[in-house]
Here is the input.
Amino acid sequence: MVISACSLPDSRVDTTSFDYLVGQKLMLDLRYFCPQHGAEQVCRQPLLELPEALAEVLRRGRIGGVILFADNIQTSHQTMTLIDEMQQVMRQAGLPPLLIAIDQEGGRVARLPTDMLVRFSGNMALGASYSEQGTALAALVAKIQAQRLRQLGFNVNFAPTVDVNINPLNPVINVRSYGESPQQVASLGQATVEALQQHGVASALKHFPGHGDTLVDSHIGLPRVDHDRATIDAVDLLPFQQIIASASPPALLMTAHIQYPQLDSSTFVTDDGREIIVPATMSRAIITDLLRNELGYQGVVISDALDMAGVAQYYSPLQATATTFAVGVDIALMPFKLRNHQDIEQFWQFQQQLIAAVRKLSSTELEQSVARISALKQRFAKLAEPSQTLSARISDFEARDRTLEFAVQNLLANAATTLIYDRGVLPITQTHWHFLMPDTLRCEAALNALAALKPENTADCLSLAHLPELPHTSYWREGALILVGDITPAHSLVELGGMDDIHAARPRASVTERHAWLQQALTGRSQVVVYATLRSPYGAADFAGYAQVATASFDYSAEKDHQGKVISAPLEELVRALLTNQWPGVLPVSVSLPAELLEQ
Here is the structure.
């Protein structure tokens, strides 16, 4: 890649000063900003254009990067203008361009609206397609993601997730993982990293040293993995190790706020006197000794968001940021919230205190860290050819051909559609279908899918967004099909957006309550019952005694087409598979089932 001159600071900037060195090691989130709010008010006003107050933070703070969320992204014109405004600030100040990052994993963790990029089914769907497609679909999805992100102005994607999901109860990873085979996870992850970076977007591999066997979401607590070292090497670390050693290692690697006693059992004392094992993000044994020295990783290490409870409940922002730098982390992600002018004033105090803390660190390590960040920017932070204006780039994006996007979306949905078991009732021949769906949007999508593929059939749908009264026996038609679409587990905060969404996590019926309702509704039914997992496939175990068929789609995305009709590629492919009994996908994780079903 040609390195733009704007990737390097000009002579006006003292690149040896501590404010420069520290600023380059910070990646801020500018998700919300309320210039009229006081410190006591909650800000939920999305930042859509750059105010001068925040431009000054970027400029004076010598900031190295920014992460954008779905709230910051309304239209392609607005998004590209916002990113251009931020980069212009840096360019005019003679500073290196910003790293502009986003969480665009695919599946449920996707920040771009579907009119900018279709929502491809996520990693576990790619894992289900692996037996038939190998890594080809993963590479194609990543290529399209990178091309769209690059056009918009993003140069870092926090993807892929290469955690090996061996815990069926994992609340935060589950379908974000390619599966439970470390080797398959490594292969698909490597293909994704290579494709992203070949098309101009830096890949951030996550979550080191592995978040696949946890019962706690690090957004709301501090998970712990008690694997022995042999298991850590064979399962958790294997994908990281293989991808780091590949011909296309990840430009960045994200740490996990997670305890690994067999890797580092050292402790710290919290403000309330508790003695806690250090999380990986704060562990020199894990970040420097293991990742740098043992695995030989030479790229940029970035922390997971430092506002997550796995860190924030134990460390102040200053302590968290200074500690990550001390153990060898290059970039602190979301170290300090900037929501109003009072926050900005406090940020300058935070910056000076952080500089004081960093002065005590090894100057050699600090310079090496910033050199890695500089090399990353020289490789990936060139946003556009100098001759191409912003308006030309916006026009090019808005005129793009989306044919391939939609084709790949449908291809992946088809390739991932998986049969978990069948008690000999497929293909489906019933002419009336009762859908039980998680919400009205999925109801519309399911009804439309059946109407498109089998227009002569009839159907109805009951939304389970809030558990209704159990249907009266007369509701169920004799000889009909009952199709249960289930989304398990509930959304984690990363899928909603982040810690700012903890207030908006609406109380819903628990998985236990929902499954109990469904089991009661299905008890004694003479109709054929299909249990369709639209997210994690592990839920099929709860319905082995109630359903004659269980399927997995790993995705429940639905959207409106240009005519306003609700469509869903995963649901359409599910209906097609039930009618044809063609199932391309293979389960990438183990599901606990009765012996007679496992023998099929």
Confidence is low (pLDDT under 50) at residues 1-6, 498-502. Residues 307 and 334 are 7 Å apart (CA to CA). The first helix runs from residue 18 to 24. The first strand starts at residue 26 and ends at 29.
